Amino acid sequence: MLFKLLLISILLGALKANADPLPSWHDGEARTRIIDFVTNVTTPGEAYVPPAERIAVFDNDGTLWAEQPLYFQLQFALDRVPAVVADNPALAKTPPFNSVLKHDREAMAAFGHKEIAQILLQTHSGMTTDEFADVVNAWIDTARHPGTDRPYTEMVYQPMLELLAFLQLSGFKTYIVSGGGVAFMRTFSERVYGIPPEQVIGSSVQVEYTEVEGQPRLIRKPGLSFIDDKEGKPVAINLHIGRIPILAFGNSDGDLQMLKWADRCGENCLIGIVHHNDAEREWAYDRDSHIGRLDKALDAAGERRWLVVDMKSDWLTVFPR
Length: 321
Description:
Number of helices: 14
Strand order of the largest sheet: 2-5-4-3-1-6-7-8
Largest sheet: 8 strands, mixed
Strand content: 15-25%
Order of helices and strands: HHEHHHHEHHEHHEEHEHEHEH
Shape: globular
Mean pLDDT: 94
Helix content: 40-55%
Radius of gyration: 20 Å
Distance between the termini: 15 Å
């Protein structure tokens, strides 16, 4: 949170001094288009957009923070398996949990949607909403990325932090609209991105109200309630926001429908894609990736003149220093 406040303070000073609000972006088309867009919609004139209509939506995995070699929430789920098995020993002999316990990389590499769903549902349920938040916070505070040894909350993209702060200071309401679990992301969204929990939209499990000794509880159940991916993203935006965004950023085909939905605002909007093409500082992947595949959305970007942000050429740095 201190880092975020410091970043906002620096950017506020930059805006007052008419300096570059995106210091980690190369001087090029991407930075120019972003700054021109924000200037146009916040300056009285033909392109002006009232603050109430300045809605910006962002995917999370691969757009605001990294997603390789595994989605971070999946790594959280895998790390939770021993605790879940301790509470339910029968799972120790049951696929796919036995493979995780044995660290059987070959078997884990073969996991499909069914096995991953089993792990996610078991590790994300059977507790109150408050207990789940505590479990996530404990993991966030101690877990380290296997490739960089950084905390996962430092695997965020510095240029995107600057973009979020720039938008927030320019009267935009910024939302996360992600396929990740909404309860998972809400534990860190405000301190990392400056986005409060009520502006985080994501996938969710079933939750049941109950009372224990007269005290209300919300219990997370092992069943999916909503998947906020692909076609689900525009549905969720309509349900939870009720306005068409004028800015949308994603990085994969899972974001395509959200980007198309935001593109309905016409010329007075900005649609962007983060393109992972920097194997030296991060990872390089797109059309053939098993994580964050960018294929149809990349084609659509060319057809619709969306902004494709090349990590390698547009960003001076990737992660916070």
